[in-house]
Amino acid sequence: MRASYEPVAVPPAASWQHRVLRETSFDFFWHFHPEVELTLITRGSGTRIVGERIESYRPGDLALIGPHVPHAFVSTPGTAGQEAILVQFRRDFLGAELFAAPEFAGVADLLDASAALVEATPEVAGRLAGLAALAPAARTVALLDLLSVLADGPVRTLTDPGARHQWTPAARQRMEAVCAYLQANVVTDIRLDSVAQVAHLTPVALSRFFRRAMGRTMTAYVTELRVAAACQLLRDTDLAISEVATRCGYGNLSNFNRRFRSVAGCSPREYRRALADASQPNRSTGNAVSSLVEDDPTVLRQ
Question: What is the pLDDT of residue 43?
Fold first, then answer.
């Protein structure tokens, strides 16, 4: 799927942009730009799609998205109000050699991650929010300091920097329509012929087109969307797992458990237990999720 190019409007007399984005909802818009982007979610929840990685997002999530990496944020249907703080800058906005300096080696490694989820402590969130109140020079120095702080914290890569898709504008528009339909109907019984009507293709042609564009079948894509929604509910609510399954489009609990494990690498119960253990740092954890996180080679540690 070819993403849309989104021009970033840098304010006059500035070399980078800081803004607060407030919308009733975040609708599917698959796009890229040559700027590095920091996106801190401050209100709302939904699904974050970066390259070929699909995950849920919630307040406090801070994503770093590299130049030309396609991405989209899609709010959960029925939720009211979405807000995010965005910082966008070109890697060479202060000169091509700045991040080549040894003092900024850690920041350069962070930016080379292409796309990553970084830790947004209350201090980091406060710094991001406070950038707007600073004078231009002080704001830029504060951004460099913030990038240095983020580079020293835990970082989890989100996508393969080599993943790129080249498609015509017509193909992009078709895929945007399909993905928007799937997102809006993710908890329902999605029929291939209904999606094919949205794409103006036969079911067979749609299946072939979707797999070529997204690198996965439509069934696998919908499963990832549903599991992302389930992770959000398991993390943010005390709903019974059977209720989570129902709300995410699975009427059969065994099928839900099987699909969840195929994506997350553990059962829903293990996932929730891992979250509870992680909130109590003095407790030793031996569950599947903790082991996966600790051994994950995509987690960069200083």
Answer: 92
Number of neighbours of residue 209 by Cβ within 10 angstroms? 21
**Which of 92, 122, 157 corresponds to the end of one domain?**
157
* Angstrom distance (rounded) from CA 105 to CA 108: 5
Closest residue by Cα to residue 42 from 83, 87, 88, 79: 83
Q: What is the CA radius of gyration of the chain?
A: 20
Phi-psi map region of 6: left, alpha, beta (phi>0 left; psi -120 to 50 alpha): beta
Q: First vs last Cα of the chain: how many Å apart?
A: 35
pLDDT tens, residue by residue, 106-146: 999 888 877 778 878 888 999 999 998 999 999 999 999 99
- In which order are the strands placed within the sheet that holds 4-5? 4-5, 31-32, 71-75, 46-50, 53-57
For 151, the domain range is 4-157
Whole-prediction pTM: 0.62
Q: Of the residues 157, 188, 221, which one is the last residue of a structural domain?
A: 157
172 or 283, greater pLDDT:
172
Cβ neighbours for 38, distance < 8 A, ≥ 6 positions apart:
62, 63, 64, 65, 85, 86, 87, 88, 128
Averaged pLDDT, 27-50: 87
* Same-domain check for residues 27 and 103: yes
Number of domains in the chain: 2
- Tell me the CATH number at 201: 1.10.10.60
pLDDT digits (tens, 9 = 90+) for 189-207: 899 999 999 999 999 999 9
